[in-house]
Write the structure tokens for this entry.
Amino acid sequence: MSGLAKLLELKGIPTTLVALVQLHLEKIGPPRAVWVPSQLGRPLGEPNDRNFQRRVLLQALNLLERKDGPLIHEDFPDDPPTWQDLPNWRPPFELPAPKAMSSSADYRSAVTSEIAALVSYWAKAKEKFGRTTVGASRQSPEAWPQFMTAFLDGELPQGPAGLIEKPALALRFAVDDIKALYNECAMSDGKTPASRQLDAWFWNETAAGDLLRALRTTGMESENNALKTVSGRFFVPAMWIEK
């Protein structure tokens, strides 16, 4: 984006950025940018933190009034408030501790049980937030375990007809959906925890987290290049690859 900003400025179009990687700003030098100390993928801070998000946007947009460049870089002064751990946080439900799983049937059974236990909390989350980010896969949550574990057996099942029927892309969106569902359910009641608390819970305490690690391993060993690519890049954050 920094490089694109420079090209747009050369065409006479003013640009401003919200940037997460300070080294990129230093190396590429976009015309205007605010560096924020947020988690990768969340440049405006945590979901639902409207006040913080508005402050970030206003600081970035205010740079458009500046003409003292060619390079104008500012640092945002604060960490997102919800980066602070919520003392003694637990999700509003208890899932069974994931057991050792060695077959697709093991993973399918465990994740099916978890999803069945979460459905009512997903309804609460949708009521609380007025929306859901689940739906990219165009499959119901009940269909995910069967679809996803088929890849562990070396199959390449197609997704729903349309743009996402290709197996690798369909699996990527199912992975995105299952992570979104679990996080929304975990935030369905009470105060919102820090994102790292949500991550630690999902990757350390759920069968779904273990399934995504297994899918990453299987995908990266596949001869299907598309599956290998999405498995390595999108399934498991680097810090959670090993439990």
